[in-house]
Structures are given as C-alpha cells and as structure tokens.
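Dear H.,

Thanks for agreeing to be a second pair of eyes. The structure we're designing against is below in token form, covering all 591 positions.
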C-alpha cells in the first residue's frame, strides 16, 4: 500500500535549504529538544506580494457585494410608508453603509441614515456601472461615496464606512487612494508610509481596479529566536493511568496545567524545558514526555449543477478547476460531518450558521468556537459553505455539517496538546472527516497518538503540507494515517510557497481562494491551508455517496482519480496530481 510506505524520517535538505535537525534523545545524560531552523527559501517579498494580491481581490469582492446591495435598495418601492420604515431600519443596521440617498438631477429625493454628504460631484472614479469618490475623513473615521445608476434615471448613493478595510489588512498592509496617499495602515511601524513615493523599491503595490487604490504589504520578519514550544511545560502520558495519583504525590513540584486522560500538561516553576524533559524521560512510569510544541495555521460536456451564489461565477475559479459542477450531480455531502480544527468558526456567519454543530474549545473545554482570527472561518467556508442560497460563495460539500473545533487561539497559534485534544474530541463527537490546516516541523507523540486514534476509528484525516517552499515535512501532514495536500494555482502549476516531498498525496487550488470571514464578510486568502479543505470537502462527498468505504478506500479514490500533473505518476510536488471531483465520484458509480 503506497500510503503505508510513506517515510516518517526527517530528511535534511542539502544546499540552500540545509536544515540542522536534532531529535530528542538521551545520550550520556544529555538531552536535546527537537530543534530545527526551517530554511526560508521563500523571499519575504514574494509572500508579501501574494498577500497584497489577495487583499486587492478581497476589496473587489467587497465592492461587488456593496454594489448589489445598492441595486436592491434602489429597486425598493419607497413610496410605501411601511416599506420605507423597514428599509430605514435595514440601512441603519447595515455593517458597512452609513447612509443611503436617492438622487434625481443630483438633488436628493430620499435620504436614509446618517450620511455626512450626498454630493454626487465627489464621484470622480468610474468602473463598469459604479462610481466612487476618494476616501474622506469625518469625525475620525474614513468614508467614501459609492453610486449606481438606476433604470429610472436616479442615482443611488451610499456612504460606505471604510472600517472594513482596517479589519482585513490587519497589521501588515497599508492602502493608498488613487492619488497615492495612504489612508489606512496597520499598527506595524514598518508600514508607516505617507504616500506611495515612500515605498521601498523592494515592495510592489497591487492595484484595486475599481478604485485605483494601491495595497502594499510589508510583513514582520520571522523571529528566529522565538520558542517553538511552551517554556517550562511538558506533555506526558502514563504507562499505567491508574498510577497517576501516586505519581503526582511524588512530584509535587509539578503543576498540572491541562489534562485529557491519558495525557497531561505539567509545568515546572524552576526547571527549564530541557531540564524538565530530561528528568521526565528517565521516569519509568511515563510512556513519553515531550515539549508542548507550538502549532500555527498554515497561513496561502456533461450537464452541470451551477450554484447561484453571488461570487461563484466571477471569483471561484478554484471549484471549476477541480470539476466541481459535474461532481455535484452525484453527491452533495449529505449526512456527513466535517470537523474543522482551526482558530474556530464564526457561529453567526450567514453562509455557515445553519449547518454548524455544537463545537468545542480545546483551551477552556467550552463550546465557544468563536473566531476572532478568521482563518478557521475561511477554511470552513471552502469545505462546506451553505451553497445555492444566492449569498456569498459555494462550498465543496454542500450539505455536510461543520463541527468547529478551536485548537488555535486568536493569534493563530496553539500547541500539540490542544491539537491532539481537539482530534480526540472530534472523533468522539461524530466527525467523519477532520481537516487540519495547521502544523509544525516537530514530531509530537501526543499528536501522533491522537492521529492514530482517529484513523483506527475510521475518520478521514486531511492536512496541509505547509507554506515555506521546503521539502521538510510538517506534522501532522507527515504521519502515514493522514492525506497530505499541496497547493496549485489557477494555471495548475505548483503554488510557489507550497511545501513538497514524497509525503505529498495530492494537490488542490490554494492561491487566491475566496471564502468566508467573520461578521458576514468575505475575503481572499492563499496557502496550503486553503488547498486542504477542498480535499476535505471531496472526502465528505465520497463518504456521503459511499458510506461503506473505509479511510484507506477513501484515500485511494482521491489519489487514483486525481489529474496527473508534473512528472508522470506520483511526484514530490503534486503527489498523485490535482483532485478531480467529478472523476472521483464517477469512479464510484460502477462499484
């Protein structure tokens, strides 16, 4: 079986990607915690430009959404007092429009909301059927006017609150208007530019075509000194759990930080992590002791069923590339549960809330799976957003339920213990498929045990390969029980950031992928994090169509029906090729 032949050794890459690897061993009373400087073969500027492109596409999607909203409001019969009352309430509750005006011959006939101006002469930029003003400041906030022409000769005018721009650029980007003046920027002092003339030569800004805005990104340099594990902590597992009470009595200098039998996270107030691990690994009662490694998000013709979601036709190239429309004729993912182990999932997003199950927070063991980061909501949308509902995007597995499991915090970080805990919980609470768009370059026994538990309980495990353009395997992607996904772009070429190696199983679209963002927003992201949920969604479609297939049989269907790319047969960059949803599902019809 090809999958079981997958190597589990870490291979040092020679040359520019030389990696120094140390495995945690006891030798002559010395111990070395796994340490590895992952080579940054990628130029930071390349990733920054990719992010700038994502942000420009996100802005375009957002403007299209606002345009559609203005048109809907412009078609309302506002002569009816009851309709006008409901309309006024809707405008005031809208998260992005500050107000709305209907103009005839540049004079307002109706004004709803708190518009600071209805001067249509400010609409100096034109794109398709829309008109825009330059950004302007009012009471410490940035706004712009947006206008649409109605069939009756009216101008439909909306004042847009530009706070949304600040929300999705975070701390790494700045946005300049068409005159080259930056009006929104993150908190990173390295991006405190006044005009585009201040940009360093190494930074290439991306243009938003509708507005002429320019978006520039300069991310912070990675901190090479940053710990890859939680200091003073260890994850332990007892050989005989019934002895744990006596063991803790004998080791009262250790505090139990977290527990999820048979695993415990213990902390020493005085010992370094290295000294703590050294002591615990000599303890006969423990099956293993290891650092609590830090994990991060890896963030990146037949009749067709064509959904009516507003962004599907214009932006979701990724679904057409994997033959999604034909595949939907055969399966929609009904009666399948896909667990998303990530930063959480927005419980109120209009494209998800009706299909979310009660989730889990691995940090506090509550059901609070809220997502302040946004990565998990985006991943969940790719896998299984509510589809054919006019709004937003289409998800791969239309009818599957989402089981949100928060294992990464609001900074997109967690530990091997939280990830393992989330896997156990997902398996015990009905997951058929688990997506893990996360990882780290360190093996952890606690994580591998959890992966084996899921596999032995017939749960499909999908993981992203990583975004460093290196051959070094990430975990859990490296484990033989997991199907590992690399990323391709819209030309079916390997995405330049995608990790590679003989452990890659298949590839899926991972560059400029539109999906969901908290607070009913939509954004474009890139990464193998985005590629992985395409495959998780396909696994959901397969399990819905053929629930009798076990995990390895599902893996075989996905691999054997992939579109071969690169070198003929399996290769290190594409695995068995890019997933082909129609081919995969059609292969099951004759079985």
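And this is the sequence the design step returned. I haven't edited it by hand at all.
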């Amino acid at each position: 079986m090809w999958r079981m032949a997958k190597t589990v050794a870490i291979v040092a890459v020679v040359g520019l990607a030389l990696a120094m690897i140390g495995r945690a061993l006891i030798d002559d009373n010395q111990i070395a915690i796994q340490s590895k400087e992952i080579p940054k073969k990628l130029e930071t500027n390349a990733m920054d430009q990719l992010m700038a492109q994502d942000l420009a596409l996100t802005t375009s999607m957002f403007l299209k959404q606002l345009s559609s909203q203005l048109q809907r409001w412009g078609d309302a019969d506002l002569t009816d007092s009851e309709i006008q009352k409901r309309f006024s309430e809707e405008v005031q509750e809208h998260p992005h429009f500050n107000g709305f005006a209907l103009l005839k011959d540049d004079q307002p006939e109706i004004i709803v909301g708190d518009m600071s101006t209805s001067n249509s002469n400010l609409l100096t930029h034109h794109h398709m059927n829309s008109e825009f003003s330059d950004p302007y400041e009012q009471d410490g906030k940035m706004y712009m006017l947006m206008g649409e022409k109605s069939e009756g000769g009216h101008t439909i005018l909306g004042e847009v609150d530009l706070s949304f721009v600040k929300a999705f650029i975070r701390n790494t980007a700045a946005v300049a208007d068409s005159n080259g003046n930056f009006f929104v920027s993150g908190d990173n002092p390295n991006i405190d530019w006044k005009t585009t003339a201040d940009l360093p030569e190494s930074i290439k800004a991306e243009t938003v075509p509708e507005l002429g805005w320019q978006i520039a990104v300069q991310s912070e340099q990675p901190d090479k000194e940053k710990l890859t594990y939680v200091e003073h902590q260890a994850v332990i597992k007892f050989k005989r759990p019934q002895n744990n009470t006596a063991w803790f009595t004998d080791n009262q200098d250790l505090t139990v930080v977290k527990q999820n039998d048979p695993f415990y996270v213990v902390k020493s107030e005085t010992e370094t992590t290295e000294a703590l691990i050294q002591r615990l690994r000599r303890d006969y009662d423990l099956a293993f002791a290891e650092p609590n490694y830090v994990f991060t998000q890896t963030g990146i013709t037949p009749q067709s069923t064509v959904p009516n979601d507003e962004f599907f036709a214009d932006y979701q190239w990724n679904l057409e590339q994997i033959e999604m429309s034909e595949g939907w004729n055969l399966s929609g993912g009904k009666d399948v549960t896909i667990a998303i182990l990530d930063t959480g999932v927005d419980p109120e997003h209009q494209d998800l809330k009706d299909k979310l199950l009660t989730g889990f927070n691995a940090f506090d063991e509550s059901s609070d799976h809220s997502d302040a980061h946004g990565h998990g909501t985006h991943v969940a949308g790719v896998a299984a957003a509510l589809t054919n509902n006019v709004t937003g995007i289409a998800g791969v597995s239309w009818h599957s339920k989402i089981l949100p499991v928060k294992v990464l915090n609001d900074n997109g970080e967690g530990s091997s213990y939280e990830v393992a805990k989330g896997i156990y919980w997902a398996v015990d609470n009905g997951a058929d498929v688990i997506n893990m768009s996360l990882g780290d370059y360190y093996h952890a026994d606690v994580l591998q045990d959890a992966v084996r538990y899921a596999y032995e309980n017939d749960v499909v495990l999908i993981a992203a390969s990583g975004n460093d353009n290196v051959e070094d395997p990430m975990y859990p992607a490296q484990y033989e029980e997991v199907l590992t996904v690399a990323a391709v772009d819209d030309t079916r070429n390997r995405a330049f950031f995608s990790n590679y190696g003989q452990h890659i199983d298949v590839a899926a679209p991972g560059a400029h992928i539109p999906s969901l963002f908290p607070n009913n927003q939509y954004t474009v992201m890139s990464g193998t994090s985005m590629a992985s949920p395409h495959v998780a969604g396909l696994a959901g479609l397969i399990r819905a169509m053929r629930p009798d297939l076990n995990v390895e049989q599902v893996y075989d269907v996905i691999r054997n029906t992939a579109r071969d790319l690169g070198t003929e047969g399996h290769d290190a960059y594409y695995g068995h090729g890019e997933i082909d949803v129609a081919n995969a599902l059609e292969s099951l019809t004759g079985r």
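Two observations from my side: Confidence is low (pLDDT under 50) at residues 1-41, 300-309. The two ends are 20 Å apart (CA to CA).

Warmly,
E.
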